[in-house]
Amino acid sequence: MTEQVQESGTALDAAKLTAGIAIVAAGVAGFYLLSAQPIWLRWIIVLAALVAGSLVSLQSHQGKSFWAFVQSSRVELRKVVWPTSQETVQVTIVVFVMVIVLGLFFWGLDSVLGLLTRWLTGHGE
């Protein structure tokens, strides 16, 4: 049995997250404030701010936990057994056939219940 110790973030971690958000916000603000500059340069500034803000945020406890989650998700994704194209086509055909069959069934059931209701209430056509 494994025991996990839950660590909480410190004030320094909160400062790192705040700094990361501030860097991204500055990059977005720079995009609009530097409207006289070429668009490609403005987008490079935004992308650089996103990268820098992410790197700063990943240094916090929450950022490290998030990165560990991403890594474990990638490991789990490699364990997935994906269907072959033939299996995918077969399942798709079964789904379409079942939609048609159930659509006809419910249309017939609705028609019969509608006729029965009209007959019982005396509101025929």
Keywords:
elongated, mainly alpha, 4 helices, 125 residues, 78% helix
Concise structural overview:
The chain has helices at residues 11-33, 39-57, 61-78, 85-121. By secondary structure, it is mainly α.
Task: Describe the protein's architecture and organization.
- The protein contains four helices and no strands.
- With 125 residues, it is mostly helical.
- α1 (11-33) runs antiparallel to α2.
- The longest helix is centred in the C-terminal third of the chain and has 37 residues, at 85-121.
Query: Helix amount, in percent?
Result: over 70%
Taken in chain order, the helices and strands follow as: HHHH
- N- and C-termini, Cα separation: 72 Å
Molecular shape: elongated
Q: How many domains would you count in the coordinates?
A: 2
Present the secondary structure layout.
Layout: H1 11-33, H2 39-57, H3 61-78, H4 85-121
